[in-house]
Design goal:
9-stranded mixed sheet; mainly beta; 20 strands; UDP N-Acetylglucosamine Acyltransferase, domain 1; about 160 residues
């Protein structure tokens, strides 16, 4: 049996989406972004430039992702603090250069600060300050972004 592969769909501004995926009505995708197969981008989502959304991620309606955000595979960004709220959303905002690890969950109304990291599998139940790395369930402070980059062999 031959492998199945997605189809690359060219979007505006040099961005791409890998079919099958869902891009909601009114979603705005910045320049040079990549949206992985089986991802769901909800209605009225704003995505900045140079963002990478890995396959299977779920970005709920009205979420805001600044430039250079990375969302790992199967990460979930929620907007409903007390479901079903019938349209009374509490959108999530994710700051410039933030990283949301694979399988992580960000609950409704949370802000992820600039260059913050939410570790794979973690659940953010409160806002995460800029330049901090958090992990666990519920997520707790682990280290600074500078320490994280040092462990990765980067200068930050």
């Amino acid at each position: 049996m031959e492998g199945l592969s997605g189809t690359k769909v060219e979007l505006e501004n040099g961005s791409v989406a890998w079919w099958p995926c869902h891009l909601g009505t009114g979603a705005e995708i910045g320049a040079n972004c990549s949206i992985g197969a089986l991802s769901h981008v909800g209605r009225l989502v704003l995505i900045g430039d140079n963002c990478r959304l890995q396959g299977g991620c779920y970005i709920s309606d009205e979420s805001i992702l600044d430039d250079d955000v990375f969302i790992g595979p199967n990460a979930t960004i929620l907007n409903d603090r007390h479901p079903p709220s019938k349209g009374m959303w509490s959108p999530v905002e994710i700051g410039k250069g933030a990283v949301i690890g694979g399988g992580a969950t960000v609950v409704a109304g949370i802000t992820i600060g600039e260059k913050a990291v939410l570790a794979a599998g973690a659940t953010a139940t409160i806002s995460i300050p800029a330049n901090e790395v958090w992990g666990g369930v519920p997520a707790k402070f682990l280290m600074s972004r500078e320490q994280y980059e040092s462990r990765r062999g980067n200068d930050g």
